[in-house]
Known about the structure:
single chain; alpha+beta; Rossmann fold; Translation Initiation Factor IF3; 3 domains; eleven-stranded mixed sheet
Amino acid sequence: MAEARITPRKQDYAQWYQDVVREGGLAEPAEVVKGCMVIKPHGYAVWEKMQADLDRRFKATGHQNAYFPLLIPLSFLAKEAQHVEGFAMECAVVTHAGLRAVDGKMEIKNELEEPYVIRPTSETIIGHFFAKWIDSYRDLPLLINQWANVMRWEKRTRLFLRTGEFLWQEGHTAHASHDEALEEVHRMLDVYRDFAHEIMAMPVIQGTKTANERFAGAVETLCIEAMMQDGKALQAGTSHDLGQNFGKAFNVTYQSEKGEREFVWQTSWGVSTRLVGAMVMTHGDDDGLVLPPKLAPIHVVIVPIYRKDDEKDRVNSAAQMIAKDLRADGLTVKVDDRDGIKPGAKYYEWERKGVPIRIEIGPRDLEQQSVMIKRRIAPIGPDGKAMKESLPLQHLGLSIGRVLDEFQAFLFDRAQKNMNDNTVMIDSWKDFEAVFADDGSKFVWAHWDGTTETELAIKEATKATIRCIPLPRQGPAKEAGACVKTGKPSAQRVLFSKNY
RNA sequence: CGGGGCGUGGCUCAGCUUGGUAGAGCGUUGCGUUCGGGACGCAAAGGUCGGAGGUUCAAAUCCUCUCGCCCCGACCA
């Protein structure tokens, strides 16, 4: 009877991911628009939760939201040499405007004098406006964030993880000194780490990208890297020190206290809808989506249970009362009072959608003034079934709140354990190759001689890349050693993994 | 963009080799009986077989082109 809607992870991880995204009601391929996706209401609700919390954190650190155009003059892109090189191939270009209907078909009319690119990121156009807005050291720091869509014409796409168009936020700031800019870069990286830990229940490692992996146009790129359940890494957020590169390209200058004209020091930082995919692959299981309570659009689903009509009325009205009380306590509650569907079917459906807590309420519970609750992930009891808990109706909101907090913490600990269990220190090339043999991946701390050449050779041999050079206390204690590939001297271990 | 696979009711797929005018299961709708882990009976709706050309008396089936999805590779948040 059970329908295998979701491919087990062990059987085919990539297929499992797609199944969960579909069955969880998160998104589907846009079908008529290559490489793009439709984010469905449940998926968008998760993104809105992410946005709300991040936005609060950005404002708390002094940033203001603004909005810049989707279209960027083609010439802007060329002003920063590294930047163009990095993005040129991924740019969609607008060359014409206007259509005319001819025999029921649309004919493209006027060619534009200067084409526009659809923003793959906004450093250039924001650089242009920063140059206008900044004149004096008194105008600094300028701390701007933009919530927007961007487009990168990717060869290969996967829902949420890499799509032609995606939603994100991009912070752009300008400062009077490099130190101040660096402070900002680290501050926002910490905001991302805190968000990942506290809201997504997703442990991350903070580090610096190698020159090879650096953002096009940045002096330095910092990142947070998360581990998915298959041992692969996913870059969950980035924070860039842009130095004076864009300042020079767009002539963003200010008059210092000494009266001298100086280029500003800029930063940019972003996270995207990719985080939704990260959440799926961090917490999901073979039964479907698992939502951390702090990202769950619905905290609690109530399933009424009854046999006879009089029971049905009593149970349903009790369910509504409970929902009302819980809502008063700030929880989002859904009462699944659909008739004609058995409770078991409802259980499976809401589990697929990742709702953290289910409340079952039936005649027996009414008598006892209690409800049965089931966590989305619960220990297996002696009877071989997932354990349920009975909670008294009195102060139910408080009890549920406590359970949600516990569940949030449980998910983080579980993810952290998965990361720890799949992280290894490796010193021999043979062992290194073994970790990444076949489709395998872990987080590997190994020594590296610091050259791009070796980095690429390792990638060629194993598909593993350097995810980051850890910041202090983000990896094993710093110790000198010999490069795992070349045996040349290395100052510290770096993080290797296959990645998304 | 190179290699491979796949597009047939909402979903999963059969039918294609050997052309004859579309099926199954699940889901959906209605009614009744059910309801503490995926119910059952009866009735019903729903597809110009991804799209466009072509071959043919006749195309889901053969040919050409095209669009999209998935996997591998190169590239990337």
